[in-house]
Amino acid sequence: MSLIEVRNLSRLYHMGEETVYALRDVSVGIEKGEYVAIMGPSGSGKSTLMNLIGCLDSPTSGEFILNGIEVSEMDDDELADVRNRQIGFVFQTFNLLARSTALHNVELPLVYAEIDSETRRERALEALGQVGLGDRVTHKPNELSGGQRQRVAIARALVNRPAIILADEPTGNLDSKTGVEIMALFEELSSRGNTIIVVTHEEEVARHARRIIRIRDGLIAADERISPEDRIQVGQS
Amino acid sequence: MRLGYELKEAAKISWVAINSNRLRAALTTLGIVIGVATVSLMGSAIAGLTQTFEDSLSLLGTDVLFVQKFNWATGGGDWREMRNRRDITLRDAKRLERELSMAQAVSVEAQSNGLVSYEERSASSAAIVGANENTAMVRGFLLADGRYFSEADVDGLRPVCILGSSLAENLFPRFSPLGERIKIRGKKYEVIGVLEKLGGFLFGDVDNQVMVPITRFVSDFAYNPDVNISVKAVNTELLDDTRIEVRGIMRKIRRLGPGDKDDFAVNQQDMLMDAFMQTGGTIAAGGLLITGLSLLVGGIGIMNIMFVSVIERTKEIGLRKALGAKRRTILIQFLLEASFICLFGGLLGLGIAYPITLLMQQVFPATLAWPVVLTALLVSIFTGVISGYLPAFRASKLNPVDALRQD
Fold first, then answer.
1. What ipTM, to 2 d.p.?
2. Within a domain: residue B64?
3. B323 near A CB under 8 A
4. Would an 8 Å CB–CB cutoff place A75 in contact with chain B?
């Protein structure tokens, strides 16, 4: 069974009298260790799909099985638990707690996982080391550059060892040079066996992945593998 | 264990949240500070008053009956009817004293007031009390200096007097008044004793009175005064029996027929206590209710701020939920935040009320009672929980997707 199994997933929104299909009958599977980009213009339904995969939203109909767990029927608190253990989020706007240190920000998912403070600190430091911020742990977000902030966010996504890392326009708020650095980091994480899903509308960003799922009008328009020649690779590894 | 962990972490998070917005927390606290301070002060004042009242009442003695025109008990009778009763005369008192078999002692007192002076010094409206040889014993007056009236002083109409402690200090600031002659409403009296300070808030006149033999009082100041008779029973157990005897003899003295109502009252200490508890209790409840309103207003202020801060921090809540915070976790975080603010405000309010209570003690009996302190603190935490609950509940229900989209 795939890591992510999406079967006939639909999501409806009621806007006054009208009913809008943000996603209709989408089926897709993603394997463990894949590096996938979900692409599409705004309003295509890619954010809806990402929210569903990220367990931030529940589908109107259809099935969604994540890491062997049926999540389409779960309630609020169960979803919170799945988000905490299975998913690491990376947001376009970083979403760090502005008044807390990098270390505290990275520890946060472990707090909600109810892990004791010593282990928490250890693992947060380890994650910060992995993203190359081992020397910035006591800095607050406003003392860090944009790229460093996004690294803190990535460390936060990694820290609870989730099944997938879900990144929503991770380079959207960064200059192109820093963006490339962040994409290199994702590549490195991918090469270490992490499953990564990047949602973006930029072809450049998507071409770092090995597979691109294109969404248009709530449907999957294309699902293509990228040959190694077409792939953009940053000389990191 | 799980709850302990959650509480500990939520407490840390709340503390950070409060700390990072100190001004807002301080302004929010203000309402609670004022509320708790006023409630505590009100409570202290009431506790102080009650204590003083009880102390004063204990001066009356639990084994003494007071035969008077007026009834102390609330609803004890029509006030106008009591006013129109015949005076209790000295003759009534003497007959009662003669016929009583159960009493340990009977004191007869009459009261007036007027100018009391010694050379250049004077007190313009001191209480002048006519008393007999038993009054000090029955009423529990102790002598600081000199001696009390003897039977001979009373029977012989001797012009001798005993000063209350304040009056003695006022008239004789430098030397002992014993043996000196003072003027009471123009008549000369020799000071033979000084009373010990009694204090007491309600019967403070005792310290400012001058006592003279009742016989002399009648000849000098009032020919036919309305007297009070105080009857000391042998002990408290026999008080009720003594009361029955006193009532029977008084009815005979006053020539009341079998169908007539009593035209006198036999009072005792606990009647006054009951009366005080009724009226005083109502006043206290009213006062606490009004000051409680200010605490309520403080609570509404907190609710207001909590609502605003929930809206302001929508994105943070969304993020926390995305990272795995459950509803309950968010709820606890916000509840603790409100409770911390309120508890802190409560402590601060007490910190303000305490020195004010000390100041109040200079002019007015007030005690910062521990029950009041505890109640005020509990109320402030309770206010925090109540006023924090609704916003916290709303915050916990936010959908993480919508919350994260906010800016």
1. 0.91
2. no
3. yes
4. no
